[in-house]
Design goal:
The structure holds two protein chains of two kinds. Chain A is mainly α. In chain A, β1 and β2 form a beta hairpin. In chain A, α3 runs antiparallel to α8. Chain B is an alpha/beta fold. Chain B is built from ten helices and ten strands. In chain B, the strands form two sheets. A six-stranded mixed sheet of chain B has the order 6-7-8-3-9-10, sandwiched between helices. Chain B has a four-stranded antiparallel sheet with strand order 2-1-4-5, with helices on one face. In chain B, α3 runs parallel beside α6. The longest helix of chain B has 15 residues. Chain B starts with a strand and ends with a helix. Classes of the chains: A mainly alpha, B alpha/beta. At the A-B interface, α6 and α7 of A face α2 and α3 of B.
C-alpha cells in the first residue's frame, strides 16, 4: 500500500516537470495556434546553455539561470519576429515544417559542439537531498521544488491571462487577429511577446531538466512528446488543464514503471490515446 | 459645423485576387461631417471601409487622413492615428467579457472624452452586463458593445459597417438614438447603412455605390428617392420596362 502511495507521489512530482514542459507549448498554441515542433529541442538547447554558463563560470544553477533567462526571452522574441511570424496563416503546414527544420538544426548543432554525450548541470547537494513526508515515503528535494515551481508557473500564467491587460491582449488576439489589430495592436508584436514569455518557461524547464537528470542533444523530441501529450490530455485553453495533463501523464508513467520497468513511457502513451478517443477535447477544455 | 477635409480617397481601387471590388473611388469627408455610404449588397461598401481602416492593401498616396498619406498602413497604426471601425457582424472577442471588450478599445492609446463611465452612460444596460461574456448578449447589446469599444479608442473618424443588420427595428432605433450624443463632440463619421431612410436621416451627405463605383453623391437632404433608386440599380433599371 505504502509502495503504491509512493509511486503516485513520485508520479505527481514527475508530472510537475512534464507540466513545465507543456506550459510553454500550451501558451504558444493558445495565442497563435502554432504547434512548435522544436519545443523539446529548445528545452534541451536551454539546458546546454545553462550547462555552458554554470560550468566554467562556476556560478551554480541559479547563477546560470540569471544569464539564461534574459537571453532566452530575447531569443524567443527575435525568433518569432524574424522567423515564425512569416509562417503563420490559415495553413498550419508552413509553421510545422519550419519548426521541424529548426528541431533538426538544433539537434545537429548541439551534437557538433557538445558531442552526443549526455550531460547534467551540477546542482550540488540538491541532487541527493530528500524530504520524508510520512513513514516510508521520501521525496527528493529537487523534484519537490520542480513541482512547486511548475505549480507557481501555471498559477502565474493563469493569473496573467485572466486578470491583466497583457493577458486580455493575448486572449483578444487569439480570438480574432484582424479585429485585435483594428484596436491598435500589431499582432506580430503580440505573438513575439507570447513567444518571449514561452521561452522564459523553456529556459526554466531546460535548467530543471538538466539538473534533475542528464540531457543529450537528441532528447528534444521525447520532451516534445510529453509536452504535447500533457497539453492534449489537459485540454486546450486553460493552463490548469495543461498542468493537470502533465500530472496525469506523470502518474500514469510512474504506475507503468512500477508494473514493469519497460511499461512506463508506453502506459503514458496509452493514457494519451485513451483520452484522445474518449475526450478528444481533453479532460478540462475551456469552453467558449 | 464642418471643417477641413479629414479623410480623402483619390482614385481608390480594391481587389480580392482577380476580382476588382472598387474602381477609382473619390471620397471626401470633412471634419465633423456624418457621411452615409449606401448601395446594394456587393456594391463595395464594406470593402471601402476595410481599405480605409487598413485591413485591405492600398497604395500609400490614394488615402489621405488628417493631411497625411495613409494608404496601406497597418490597421493598428491607423487605429493609433484615430481611425476606428465598428466591423460588420460586430466581431466581439468571444473569450472576453463585455467590459474587457470595451477596454480593448483603449489599445489605441488615444485620450479623449470616452472611457468606461462615458460608454456606460451612453448605453446604461451594458453596465449591468459588464461581467458577462460579450457574445452571450442579445444582438442589439452586442452592437452597443462594438460601438462602445470603437468609441473607447477616442477616434477622430468613426466608421460603422451595417449597424442595423439583423436587428429588430426597435433595437436599431435605440442604437441610432445614441448618435447625437456620439457626435456631440464633433466626431466625424462614415456610416454604411442598408436602411435608406435611416441613412438619409442621420447623415449630412451620402455616397451611393454600385458595382464598385460611386453613382451618386450629394447632401442627404437634397437627393430624392428617385435619384437613389436610379443610383442603386443603375442605367439598366432605368431602361427596363
Amino acid at each position: 500500500m505504502i509502495g503504491w502511495m509512493d509511486t503516485i507521489v513520485q508520479g505527481v512530482l514527475l508530472g510537475g516537470l512534464y507540466a513545465l514542459f507543456a506550459l510553454g507549448q500550451s501558451l504558444i498554441f493558445g495565442v497563435m495556434r502554432l504547434t512548435n515542433v522544436a519545443h523539446g529541442d529548445f528545452i534541451i538547447l536551454a539546458a546546454f546553455a545553462a550547462f555552458t554558463f554554470a560550468g566554467p563560470l562556476n556560478i551554480g544553477p541559479l547563477g546560470a539561470f540569471v544569464f539564461l533567462l534574459p537571453l532566452a526571452v530575447v531569443f524567443g522574441y527575435a525568433m518569432q519576429r524574424l522567423v515564425l511570424n512569416g509562417t503563420l496563416g490559415k495553413d498550419p503546414l508552413p509553421s510545422l515544417v519550419v519548426t521541424f527544420g529548426l528541431s533538426i538544426v538544433i539537434q545537429n548543432v548541439l551534437q557538433e559542439i557538445f558531442s552526443a554525450d549526455p550531460r547534467s548541470i551540477p546542482a550540488g547537494e540538491l541532487t541527493t537531498a530528500s524530504v520524508r513526508i510520512v513513514e516510508g515515503i521520501a521525496v527528493g528535494t529537487l523534484p519537490l521544488a520542480i513541482f512547486v515551481i511548475a505549480l507557481l508557473a501555471a498559477a502565474l500564467l493563469q493569473w496573467v491571462f485572466a486578470r491583466t491587460s497583457v493577458g486580455r491582449v493575448f486572449r483578444a488576439t487569439s480570438d480574432d487577429r484582424e479585429t485585435a489589430e483594428l484596436m491598435g495592436l500589431d499582432a506580430r508584436v503580440v505573438y513575439a511577446a507570447a513567444t518571449a514569455l514561452a521561452f522564459a518557461l523553456i529556459a526554466l524547464a531546460g535548467l530543471l531538466q538538466g539538473m534533475r537528470t542528464t540531457v543529450a542533444p537528441t532528447d528534444g523530441p521525447a520532451l516534445l512528446l510529453y509536452a504535447f501529450e500533457a497539453v492534449v490530455i489537459g485540454g486546450l485553453g486553460s493552463f490548469w488543464g495543461t498542468f493537470s495533463g502533465g500530472i496525469i501523464l506523470g502518474v500514469t508513467q510512474a504506475i507503468g514503471f512500477r508494473l514493469d520497468p519497460g511499461w512506463g513511457i508506453w502506459l503514458g502513451h496509452v493514457m494519451f490515446l485513451v483520452v484522445l478517443l474518449v475526450r478528444p477535447n481533453g479532460l478540462f477544455p475551456k469552453t467558449r | 459645423m464642418t471643417g477641413a477635409v479629414l479623410l480623402g480617397t483619390h482614385g481608390l481601387d480594391a481587389r480580392y485576387g482577380d476580382f476588382q471590388a472598387l474602381f477609382g473611388i473619390d471620397l471626401e469627408v470633412c471634419e465633423g461631417e456624418v457621411i452615409a455610404v449606401i448601395g446594394a449588397n456587393g456594391a463595395g461598401k464594406s470593402t471601402l471601409l476595410k481599405t480605409i481602416s487598413g485591413l485591405l492593401q492600398a497604395p500609400r498616396e490614394v488615402v489621405r487622413f488628417a493631411g497625411e498619406t495613409i494608404g496601406g498602413l497597418r490597421p493598428g497604426e491607423l487605429a493609433r492615428r484615430g481611425i476606428a471601425l465598428v466591423p460588420e457582424g460586430r466581431r466581439l472577442f468571444p473569450s472576453l467579457s463585455v467590459e474587457e471588450n470595451l477596454l480593448m478599445g483603449m489599445q489605441s492609446g488615444r485620450r479623449g472624452p470616452w472611457n468606461l463611465a462615458a460608454v456606460y452612460g451612453l448605453f446604461p444596460m451594458l453596465r449591468d452586463k459588464r461581467a458577462h461574456p460579450a457574445t452571450l448578449l442579445s444582438g442589439g447589446q452586442q452592437q452597443m458593445v462594438a460601438i462602445g469599444r470603437a468609441l473607447m479608442a477616442n477616434p477622430r473618424l468613426l466608421m460603422c459597417d451595417e449597424i442595423s443588420l439583423g436587428l429588430a427595428p426597435i433595437v436599431v432605433k435605440e442604437i441610432y438614438d445614441a448618435l447625437p450624443a456620439i457626435i456631440a463632440d464633433g466626431l466625424t463619421m462614415i456610416v454604411v447603412e442598408q436602411d435608406l431612410g435611416l441613412a438619409r436621416l442621420v447623415s449630412d451627405r451620402l455616397y451611393c455605390l454600385q458595382e464598385g463605383r460611386v453613382t451618386l453623391t450629394g447632401p442627404s437632404a437634397g437627393v430624392t428617392r428617385e435619384d437613389i433608386s436610379r443610383a442603386y440599380f443603375g442605367a439598366r433599371a432605368e431602361t427596363a420596362p
